[in-house]
Amino acid sequence: MRRRPAEPPVPGSPSTFIDSSSHIPVTYTDGLPLPQLLIFDLDHTLWPFWIDTNVIPPLRAKDKNTKAEDKFHEIFTFFTPVPSLLHASYGAGIPMALASRTETPDLAVQLLKLLHVPPPTVSQNSTSLPPTPTNPSFSSGPFPSQSHTNSTKSSSTTPPKRAYDFFAHTAIFPGDKRTHMAKLAKASGVGYNDMLFFDDELPNMNVETLGVTFWHIKEGISREDVDSGIWEWRRRRGYHDGPRGGSTNGEWEAR
C-alpha cells in the first residue's frame, strides 16, 4: 500500500494537556437522556492519520507513552481534545466502544495500548470532570462511579491509563461498519437505537439503517461534536432544542 504522509495533529498534545471545563460536553451534565453506548472510529476521528497507511512498525513509546514513534521516526498521537473527552466520558460512567475498518487491526490495538492518557490536571478546588450522571437513560456499565472532589490531589496520584482501557468494547477489522455495529450490539447488550456513532466517512452513515445514530466528524472529534451528536440522538427520541448542533441555554422539552 502506498505510504501517504500523516497529517499533523492540531497544536498541543496529550503529554502537556490541561483538562478544563471547556472540554466537557455540556450534554453530560444537563440532566437529559444520554446514549447507552458512544462509539468512535479511529482514523481521522480520534487520531489524525490512517493507521494502515501512515504508521510503519515497529513502534516505540515517546514522551512517557503520550506519543509513539514508528520505523521512520514519525510521531503519532491523538487529536488534542481526545484525552479530555475520554476522561470526561469515563468519569461520567458512559460506556465507550471503538469501530474501525482498518486493514491492520493488530497495529491499531498495539498503538492504543502503547499510548497512555495522563490524568487531567485541574486547578485547586475546581472540578474538570462531570459528576456521575443520575440520568435513567443508561447505567454506568463497566465503569464505576467516580468522585472528582479534591481533583488536584487525585490527578497527581493517579497513574496514566492506557487509551485502550477506556473502551468497554472494540470492533476493529475490515468490512462494512454495520457488521461492526452488530458485533458491538451483541457484546454490549445495547440496542441500536441507544448507540451513537462518530465517524469521519459519510458512507458509514449506512449504520443508520440499523437504527444507530450517526454523527459526521469532519477532521478530528471535538466537544462540540459530542454535544451535537448527542442532541441528534435526543431529537430522534422526541427531545428538541434550538438550531441543529445543540444549545447550551434555554428550556429543554420533549415533544
Structure description:
The chain has 5 helices and 12 strands. By secondary structure, the chain is an alpha/beta fold. The chain has a 5-stranded parallel beta sheet, sandwiched between helices. A 3-stranded antiparallel beta sheet has the order 2-3-4, with no helix packed on it. The protein has a two-stranded antiparallel ribbon with strand order 6-7. It is globular.
The SSE string, one letter per element, is EEEEHEHEHEEHEEHEE
Structural class: alpha/beta
Rounded to the nearest angstrom, the distance between the terminal CA atoms is 51 Å
Query: How is the largest sheet built, in terms of strand order?
Result: 8-5-1-9-10
Helix content: 10-25%
DSSP helical segment count: 5
Radius of gyration using CA atoms only: 18 Å
Number of strands: 12
Strand content: 5-15%
pLDDT averaged residue by residue = 81
Largest sheet, strands/sense/barrel: 5 strands, parallel
The low-confidence runs, each spanning 5 or more residues with pLDDT under 50, are 1-20, 123-154, 245-255
Shape label: globular
List keywords for this structure.
disordered N terminus, 5-stranded parallel β-sheet, 15% strand, 3-stranded antiparallel β-sheet, globular, alpha/beta, 255 residues, 5 helices
Can I get a quick summary?
The chain is α/β, with parallel strands linked by helices and 255 residues long. It contains five helices and twelve strands. It is globular.
